[in-house]
Amino acid sequence: MKYVSLQQADFDPGAEQAKLEALSPGAVSSFTGLVRGDDGISAMTLEHYPGMTEAALNALADEALSRWPLKGVVLIHRIGRMTVGERIVQVTIASDHRAAALEACAFLIDRLKTNAPFWKQEEWSDGKCRWVEAKCSDDAAAERWDQAAK
Amino acid sequence: MTKVKILYFAWVREQIGLTEEQVELPAEIETVANLIDWLAGRSDTHALAFADRSKIRCAIDQSIVAQDASIGVAKEIAFFPPVTGG
Predict the structure, then answer these.
(1) Domain harbouring B32, CATH code
(2) Mutate to test the interface with B, among A47, A90, A105, A143 (most CBs of B within 10 A)
(3) What is the Rg, in whole angstroms, of the alpha carbon atoms belonging to chain A?
(4) Cα–Cα–Cα angle for A14, A15, A19, nearest 5°?
(5) In sequence order, what DSSP letters do the residues of A14-43 get, joined into one string?
(6) Out of A110, A150, B69, B79, which could bridge B65 as a Cys pair, Cβ 3.0 to 4.6 Å?
(7) Interval A63-121: pLDDT, tens
(8) What is the pLDDT of residues A41-71, one digit of tens each?
(9) Nearest-CA neighbor of A91 among A112, A71, A118?
(10) Domain count along chain B
(11) For the residues of chain A, what is the DSSP string, one character each?
(12) Cβ A133–B84 below 8 Å, yes or no?
């Protein structure tokens, strides 16, 4: 089972978890990314490349399904403006085994940061805005899955 | 001359002041790097956006490519900063 969604609306991690539990796997892993309030940030706006983003998310989910024995993959990424504490991204994985569930979840989150065309702009309450810069540590986290490729 | 749609995202879009533009590519433009040089000459805002090439990423027909990649028969070429999703 694969469910990939790019959406403005919020989502319910519990509902996604329940959908995957219904597949009767031995394990379900889950990651939810939220807007952090660092440095007094009040909101975050996510811009993306329509068309390419959907294709990139689907390709990542397909790669996870081909690399690990999974029963289900849920990948939800929001776009648009979100305030501090709001959910941005959800990865939920069902497998019969914990290692596959945990590894596939980490793989998707690491690769999402480097392989999908999203750009974050931070916003402060006084109206000041700043584009988030890509981090070398994100590249390193994504590249460890290249080395682990069979 | 080949017609190509150029797209800009994030601060590249803001600095140039355009989300997209249709351009007629001169035949001598073979690679992404050639195209960046040519686009940088279109206006002061283009020059500013493309001033630091190390901060520019490119996708040809929605696939990310390096700046030495050949443009070939591309229909859509996008320029943007390194991605920051997740």
Answers:
(1) 3.10.20.30
(2) A47
(3) 16
(4) 115
(5) HHHHHHHHTT--SEEEEEEEE---GGGEEE
(6) B69
(7) 999 999 999 999 999 999 999 999 999 999 999 999 999 999 999 999 999 999 999 99
(8) 999 999 999 999 999 999 999 999 999 999 9
(9) A112
(10) 1
(11) -EEEEEESS---HHHHHHHHHTT--SEEEEEEEE---GGGEEEEEEEE-TTHHHHHHHHHHHHHHHHS-EEEEEEEEE-EEEETT-EEEEEEEEESSHHHHHHHHHHHHHHHHHHS-EEEEEEETTS-EEEPPP-HHHHHHHHHHHHT--
(12) yes
DSSP B86: -
Place of tokens 């990542």: A60
User: A79: nearest CA in chain B?
Assistant: B85
Q: Which of A98, A85, A104 is nearest to A44 (CA)?
A: A85
Q: What is the predicted ipTM?
A: 0.94
In a domain, B85, yes or no: no
> Could you tell me the residue range of the domain that residue B55 belongs to?
2-80
